[in-house]
Amino acid sequence: MRTVRRCVALLLPAFLALPAAGALAQGVETLLPLPSPAAYRGRKVVIDFTRRGPQVTSMSVLCQPGGRERREVHATRGVFIFDGVSAWQYFPERGVVIKRPARGEGGEVLRPEQLQRALASYAVRVVPSERIAGRRSRALEFTPRQAGSRPRRLVWVDEETGLILRTEVYGTDRRLSWLSVFEDLEYRPALDAEAFRMQVPPGVRVVESSDEPCLEPADAERLAGLPVALPAYLPEGFVRQCIRARRRSDYGEIQVVFGDGLSLLSLFASTRFREPAAVGESASAVAVGHSTGRWHDLGLVTGISWRAPWAYLALLGELSRDELHKIAGSVRGRSELSASPARQ
Fold first, then answer.
1. Residue 319 has pLDDT above 80, yes or no
2. Which of these, 123, 151, 163, 234, has the minimum number of CB atoms within 10 Å of its CB?
3. pTM over 0.85, yes/no
């Protein structure tokens, strides 16, 4: 399904939460080393335990300060490059390169403002650490204050640079769902600038997507041609971060992104929707208000889709089914909601 697949792709990348005001910064600085960007070269392994049998991805990573990064997936020979201006992703099996404007990606660090934001909905504590890829680390555990509502995370960061060396994500079923770890790491290597330029192979098609800035609700509605959908209920710690809209021919779509500093939630409204065939538990039926929707088990991300009078809707996030169902049941068109903040 077009909307669900697109949403998963948009949910997985890390994001930065806006810094919160208050006196928490002092405590945050004692928990986390301040990021000190440095060029590095390494080999990383990512294991997705949510599929039938672990899915292992091994990749080489090159990074330079200033938003330049190159990732090469060993098995598929796929390449992902951030050159400081654009993001390029090469899919060899499809014979296509996707190019879009960069959004500040490159380098993986846990920033103090991100940690500060997460304190609203996670209990954060320092736990025993270990050397990762030969580097001294500091380990933090993020436990949801509302047990079982969202994933628990363990994050090991480099004591000197703040680079995330290892991440373990435990799903709402308390099982290890996602593991990412550097196996080899070298700081300040000699890197050729050519490594951060996409060399498009002969015969490969380049597809460019335009920048999608954050919009005001009224501007998003004008662009997409449908109302902005908003939830009256949000779990503790989640705030609205961005509204994006797109229009292509007769297809309009609005994405509203929410975050709590670590977990993501996206609400999509679109003018057209193709319901996937039900596959066991992964697409089981669920009542959403007066509509019959579908659950979508997408690994660490869970989704729910349904039809509203004004649009086709899809809600995806790293949350429990109970929380997603409660949020979905509260979704209304923007004009139906009062100006008061979302209920907690």
1. yes
2. 123
3. no
